[in-house]
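Lab notebook: predicted structure, single chain.

Context: the supervisor wants predicted structures on file for every construct in the current expression panel, including those that have not yet been purified. This is the next one on the list. No modifications to the sequence; it matches the entry in the shared construct table.
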Amino acid sequence: MQLNNNVAEFILLGLTQDPIRKKVVFVTFLLLYLGTLLGNMLIIITIKTSPALGSPVYFFVFHLSLSDTCFSTCIAPRMIADVLLKNATISFNECMTQVFTSHFFGCLEIFILVLMAVDCYVANCKALHYRTMMSHQVCGVLVAVAWVGSIVHSSAKVFLALSLPFCGPNVIDPYFCDLKPLLKLACTDTYVTNLLLVSNSGAICTVSSVMLMSSYIVVLHYLRNHNTEGRKKALSTCASHIIMAILFFGPCIFMYTRPATTFSKDKMIAVFYTIGTPLFNPLIYILRNAEVKNAIKMLWSKKLISDDKR
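Prediction complete. Output recorded below exactly as produced.
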């Protein structure tokens, strides 16, 4: 399919062409990316090393932080480096790789958020059967299914991209490769491809968000019968999940459930869900979750004690 293409590389316009603004963008997004790595790696290490965080919810949070780290790494480092270049380009093969990896880890995050909602529902509404329904084996299988589903989803995206003939122009307006901007560069009618895109990504975002919010509505309704202390703890956990879901699904639905049209806010929203959301998730979980904060304190205290003994 690639033999029909006359385009060997694409030009990425980036966020701005102003030299001064480029420096501001470089410093700002470098700090945001480093913050994303630090926050998510802190959660990953804490969950892996803390026996107190062995419940299924933290198993899912571990994979959420892992997908956040990889999702941001698919896009942010290249975008930060490209800001320093006068003309940023990306080869055709690198572009297809970025399409695959960004959709893979983005889809994985969606599935993990849904699994976290299922875990929250079972923990609060089916408490007597929680250990059986959400055993380590069951959670492992669910995450494995999420990984396989993400591979299928991202492979479909790459197949759609490879089926498009490109003969010029080769300028991509956003700062990373995605199927929607590639549709504008194709030398063919992309109506059917756009329908497939909306039915694929749009359906996953919409159906997953509806399932997720429905489960939390049921949980919140069920919590009315809990005692004050139990209700407060469950509400805190649910609130963290709901905030993460809104931050991710809102931009995702906006970007992938509409036709291939361009809006002035597209770049800002793309920045939010590719750079901002992976940073906010660990902050939300660290700041709102007492168990995570206590585990981090214990981890650091153990490290300080071991350093003192040396």
